[in-house]
């Protein structure tokens, strides 16, 4: 590793540490992420020719600009998807669309609510995706639980269940989507062989967290009365199905048109926006302005968006200078042929840096073979889908779902690492162990 690359890694680690210590430094994590991003890219420009030896000296700066635009394009797709999904969910929520979902979860028992939310989040994330599902469930959670200490535990479980549910579905997580599109996993293979390990990785943490949630809710704090809505029940139902049904339609839209997912989100947002404007047409302007989409969009948490941008672009530098690729190759050399250890460590690393470039690096490093563990639906690729998805739950900033929940519920990095990380790790290991038994014991018996 060159001195310059080492400086970039050190700058990233310092920035990451400051983000982790946000509750101590009192400096917003978004500001640190943006600084970390700019510092890392600036360091790369100290001697860019060393990273692009085949490019002529006069063209190196142009090559770096192209790299930034490429990574920014990837990040922008994620950010627009996030902003669109957050706006859609907020529209549905502000107009009473989630009332029946809230009512279906209604219970005075803290533990019953936890299990209902865990399973609903788990299966919903496989149908939608873990990011959108997390936003939906946090909106519902705010209507169900008013006590902040309790809500933190529920919010943490939403992250765990969303990531576990996304891992066993080809459209549930961005990394499984990547592997699915690449053709190294199939829908049938991942659903049949990763479902139970993913379920175990959710149930075990949920069982541990349930010990922290004892007793029943006070009547006055559970399920407070929702604000009066100008819309009829039929209109609220229509908004719900347009919103949530539209989110379900996004993967279908992508398959049909081959356009990026954020284009589908923008389509759904446009349709929902027009619909609510029509519904508002005959209502009092003064009473409904706060619920119009133009006002709702101004309430989107931009600090979360900026944090996401900073993190993705900072990790892009590590990918650009070859750190992530070298890390993967090093793991492969150290643990020769042991796919359980390699993918297990990749899963842990995915909680520290973004799992997208890690999985992308693995797809570039490891060839698809005709047979064996590296074949389509082989042990390595299925484990990679599981580990990259579930492993992201170990730290609050290890997944898109975690980052969004962190922003919405103001969960600190320190609280999550102290209270939740070890719980996730236990479930993560149990899922891997079950998968090993599935491949080496159960298949032999049947």
Element layout with pairings:
Layout: H1 3-20, H2 22-25, H3 29-44, H4 60-94, H5 99-105, H6 110-127, H7 130-144, H8 148-167, H9 174-182, H10 187-210, H11 233-257, H12 261-280, H13 285-288, H14 293-297, H15 302-320, H16 323-334, H17 339-349, H18 355-365, H19 379-391, H20 400-409, H21 413-419, H22 421-445
Helix pairs in contact: 1-3, 3-15, 4-7, 4-11, 4-12, 4-15, 5-7, 6-7, 6-8, 6-10, 7-8, 7-20, 8-10, 8-19, 8-20, 9-18, 10-19, 10-22, 11-12, 15-20, 16-18, 17-19, 19-22
Describe this structure in words.
The chain is an all-alpha fold and 446 residues long. 74% of the residues lie in helices and 0% in strands. The protein is globular and about 65 Å long. The mean pLDDT is 81.
In brief:
The protein contains 22 helices and no strands. The chain is an all-alpha fold and 446 residues long. The N and C termini lie far apart (49 Å).
What portion of residues belong to β-strands?
under 5%
Shape: globular
Which regions contain 5 or more consecutive residues with pLDDT less than 50? none
Care to count the β-strands?
A: 0
Helix/strand structural class: mainly alpha
What's the tally of helices?
22
User: Mean pLDDT, as a whole number?
Assistant: 81
Report the helical percentage. over 70%
């Amino acid at each position: 590793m060159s001195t310059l690359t080492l400086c970039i890694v050190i700058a990233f680690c310092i920035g990451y540490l400051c983000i982790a210590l946000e509750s101590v430094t009192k400096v917003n994590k978004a500001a640190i992420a943006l600084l970390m991003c700019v510092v890392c890219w600036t360091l790369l420009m100290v001697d860019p020719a060393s990273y692009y030896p085949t490019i002529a000296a006069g063209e190196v700066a142009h090559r770096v600009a192209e790299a930034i635009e490429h990574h920014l394009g990837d990040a922008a797709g994620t950010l627009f998807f996030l902003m669109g999904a957050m706006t859609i969910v907020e529209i549905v929520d502000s107009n009473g669309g989630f009332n029946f979902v809230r009512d279906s979860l209604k219970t005075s028992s803290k533990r019953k609510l936890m299990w209902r939310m865990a399973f609903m989040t788990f299966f919903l994330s496989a149908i939608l995706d873990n990011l959108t599902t997390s936003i939906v469930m946090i909106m519902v959670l705010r209507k169900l639980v008013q006590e902040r200490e309790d809500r933190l535990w529920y919010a943490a479980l939403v992250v765990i269940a969303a990531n576990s549910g996304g891992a066993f579905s080809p459209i549930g997580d961005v990394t499984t989507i990547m592997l699915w599109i690449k053709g190294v996993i199939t829908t049938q293979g991942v659903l049949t062989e990763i479902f139970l390990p993913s379920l175990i990785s959710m149930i075990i943490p949920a069982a541990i967290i349930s010990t922290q949630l004892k007793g029943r809710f006070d009547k006055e704090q559970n399920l407070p009365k929702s604000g009066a809505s100008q819309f009829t029940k039929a209109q609220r139902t229509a908004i719900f199905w347009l919103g949530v049904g539209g989110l379900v339609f996004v993967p279908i839209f992508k398959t049909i048109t081959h356009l990026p997912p954020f284009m589908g989100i923008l389509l759904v947002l446009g349709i929902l926006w027009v619909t609510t404007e029509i519904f508002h047409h005959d209502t009092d302007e003064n009473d409904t302005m706060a619920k119009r989409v133009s006002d709702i969009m101004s309430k989107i948490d931009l600090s979360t968006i900026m944090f996401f941008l900073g993190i993705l672009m900072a990790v892009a530098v590590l990918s650009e200078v070859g750190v992530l690729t070298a890390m993967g190759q090093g793991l492969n050399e150290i643990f020769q042929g042991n796919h359980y250890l390699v993918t297990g460590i990749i899963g842990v690393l995915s909680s520290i840096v973004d799992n997208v470039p890690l999985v992308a690096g693995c797809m570039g490093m490891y060839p698809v073979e005709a047979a064996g563990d590296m074949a389509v639906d082989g042990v390595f690729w299925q484990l990679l889908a599981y580990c990259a998805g579930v492993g992201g739950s170990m730290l609050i900033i290890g997944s898109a779902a975690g980052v969004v929940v962190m922003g919405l519920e103001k969960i600190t990095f320190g609280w999550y690492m102290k209270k939740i990380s070890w719980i996730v790790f236990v479930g993560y290991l149990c899922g891997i162990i079950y998968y090993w038994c599935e491949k080496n014991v159960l298949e032999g018996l049947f």
